[in-house]
Amino acid sequence: MLFEERCNKDTNSAEWIVTTRSGSTIYYAYRNHNGKKEMRSLGTTDELKAHGLVATMIQDENAINREEYTVQDALADYYRVTKDRVTHPKKLFFSLRHLSRYFGNLRADKVGVDIWLRYEKIRGVKTSTLRNDRIKLLAALNLAYKRGLIERKPHIPRPPHPVLGTRTLTREEAQRILDVTKAPHCKLLFNLLLYTGCRQGAALSLTWDRVDFQKRNIDFRIPGKPMWNKRRTVVPMGSKLLEAMMEAYNERTCEHVISFRNRPVKYPYYSFRRARIRAGLGDDVTIPVLRRTAATWLAEGGVPIADASALLACRIDTLQAIYIKYSSDHLRRASDVLEGNVDKWVDPLLPTETPPVPASHAQIA
């Protein structure tokens, strides 16, 4: 069975419906499967017990032979469970299908160190991609372990940490990108990413009903959708962003904030690439750099780390390890303290001169 067929296996089967027949109090299980009607008597008048018996029937129908359970089965089961939780289910599907091409025919309980090390050699990709492959493979196999389909959790060695990007934008570079961006929806997107520090997915899924102009707030949370690792929060709008949002609201043609030709924008990569080239910036400037820039501006501006993590909707350790990249000018003051060029650290945001004491306070003293 192909990986695509395995992923859609459960969606093609009809669900059992628990019901009673007219004139009878005994519950039946009914379904219309592949054009054929099936009805089974459950032999009970207790509705809760009837649903429990149907659950047992479904479990027996979907029983899997542990000796024949492959990695392809584990990956497909993992996709069905998590596809509604991720922002880009197609992206998840293609990455799992790629793993299935190499590991698919292997028994799920036989994946180990040697097999993974061979995969690392032939994959020929960056360390960050290998780490993502490992995370997805381990998640699928751990799910199989929790369901009792394999006897032990597999051990797969962790690839080394990738070299994290350190590129951030200066105020002048950021303004150049905004100035050379011609399309209104792209300019609005870049304003959102820079002045709220939100992730790209949060900005693209934002709708106008979650923008409160009276309170000057933007709610990036999607109603009814649970939050997982990449959290979202309510962010206030500054004067620049508020002006851009009000202008876009008056000319809106779609319920999505970032839209083009009455449709929501899904992939703004090429638009950002054109703006980057017009601004004279290198290919190390990507869309994630905007979020990293926002975090660095907050840190260099003296915003407390707890407030910055709340604004960017991420943990403090993640904010410090991944996003904040201090400029050399900011760190040079710390180097002066090490070399003894200055007596003590002076916060550049605080006044250097002591303000005069009011007369009323002096008389009390």
Summarize the structure.
The chain is built from 16 helices and eight strands.
Arrangement of strands in the largest sheet: 1-2-3
What is the rounded distance between the termini? 86 Å
CATH fold topology of the largest domain? hpI Integrase, Chain A
Q: State the total count of DSSP E strands.
A: 8
Number of separate domains = 3
| Strand content range | 5-15%
CATH class wording of the largest domain: Mainly Alpha
Helical residues, percent: 40-55%
Give me the CATH superfamily of the largest domain: Intergrase catalytic core
**Rg over C-alpha atoms, rounded to the nearest angstrom:** 28 Å
Query: What is the CATH architecture descriptor of the largest domain?
Result: Orthogonal Bundle
Shape: globular
The number of distinct helices, counting runs of at least 4 residues, comes to 16
Mean pLDDT: 83
Sheet having the most strands = 3 strands, antiparallel
* N-to-C order of helices and strands: HEEEHHHHHHHHEEEHEEHHHHHH
Low-confidence stretches: 361-365
Q: Structural class of the secondary elements?
A: mainly alpha
Write up this protein.
This protein has 365 residues and is mainly alpha-helical. The protein folds into three domains: 3-63, no CATH class; 69-146, Orthogonal Bundle (DNA polymerase, domain 1), CATH 1.10.150; 171-323, hpI Integrase, Chain A, CATH 1.10.443.10. 48% of the residues lie in helices and 8% in strands. It is built from 16 helices and eight strands. It has helices spanning 3-7, 47-61, 71-82, 89-103, 113-123, 127-146, 171-180, 184-196, 200-204, 239-250, 269-278, 287-300, 305-312, 316-323, 328-339, 359-364; strands at residues 17-20, 27-33, 36-41, 211-212, 217-219, 234-236, 259-260, 263-264. It has a three-stranded antiparallel beta sheet with strand order 1-2-3, with helices on one face. A three-stranded antiparallel beta sheet has the order 4-5-6, with no helix packed on it. Helix 3 packs antiparallel against helix 4 (89-103), helix 3 crosses helix 6 and helix 8 packs antiparallel against helix 10 (239-250).
